[in-house]
Design brief:
- The chain has 232 residues and is mainly alpha-helical.
- It has a single domain, classed as Arp2/3 complex 21 kDa subunit ARPC3, CATH 1.10.1760.
- The chain is 71% helix and 7% strand.
- The protein has helices at 10-35, 41-46, 64-84, 101-108, 110-127, 136-158, 164-189, 195-231, and strands at residues 36-40, 58-62, 88-91, 94-96.
- The strands form two sheets. It has a two-stranded antiparallel sheet with strand order 1-2. A two-stranded antiparallel sheet has the order 3-4.
- It starts with 9 loop residues before the first helix and ends with a helix.
Length: 232
């Protein structure tokens, strides 16, 4: 599902990069609010912090919970990297591996989860040539914005009416199908392959990959929560 270079029209690729950048900027602003808190300048100065601001000013400082969240973002990204090392057979020589978008969102929340996925995709593109740098906007949009951020809200709604494990499974499966559909539409719109062939081909293989994604996501969420409990 990682789109390589030269598969997308340059104009489309640029537009998708802009959309992905906007989503990352918005998520970073949300993350900043989650990991920091406003404190008066006087209180910070009394604590020995040289902030160089006028009395009465408020400054954002990193909180203890914020430090934990940043640490957990690194933990989740590492788990996704490790899990993606294992490929599983699908059909006729085709294989798949975990995307991890729903796992990241369930473990960290929608915005931190999206950023963890975006970081994974960027590192994969730069250091492992897994997805082209010219297509990084499309890959982040497909697997981080759609596959993680958007599908978190599907999971959030679904867990109100079904057991959480079922909500995780279905959301992870849907995330793979939506990301695959977005990928197929982008490739089709670029003229690399006709819509009539790329959409059915992508959805057919990812129907099965999505089932594996759901099972692995349940296992990773339980593993992550166990690790957090052991640290407490």
């Amino acid at each position: 599902m990682h789109i390589p270079n030269d598969f997308l029209d340059p104009n489309l690729s640029t537009g998708l990069l802009g959309a992905a950048s906007a989503a990352i900027a918005f998520s970073l602003s949300k993350l900043k609010e989650m990991v920091t808190a406003l404190q008066p300048a006087e209180a910070l100065a009394a604590a020995g912090r040289n902030i160089g601001s006028l009395p009465g000013r408020m400054r954002r400082v990193l909180t203890a919970d914020g430090e934990q969240l940043i640490y957990r973002i690194g933990m989740v990204a590492s788990l996704i990297f490790a899990a993606q090392m294992f490929n599983f057979p699908v059909d006729q020589g085709t294989s798949g591996h975990l995307i991890g978008g729903v796992f990241a969102a369930v473990a960290l929340g929608p915005f931190a989860g999206m950023l963890a996925m975006a970081a994974v995709l960027l590192v994969q593109s730069i250091f492992f040539a897994d997805g082209g740098l010219l297509a990084i906007g499309a890959n982040i949009l497909n697997m981080a914005v759609i596959g993680s951020l958007c599908c978190y809200y599907f999971y959030f709604f679904l867990k109100k009416i079904v057991p959480e494990w079922a909500a995780i499974f279905v959301s992870a499966w849907v995330s793979v199908l939506l990301a695959a559909l977005a990928c197929a539409l982008e490739i089709g719109a670029s003229g690399t392959a006709p819509f009539s062939s790329i959409i059915p081909a992508m959805l057919k293989v990812h129907l099965t990959i999505g089932l594996a994604e759901g099972l692995i996501t349940i296992a990773l969420v339980n593993l992550f929560r166990l690790m957090i409990r052991e640290e407490a």
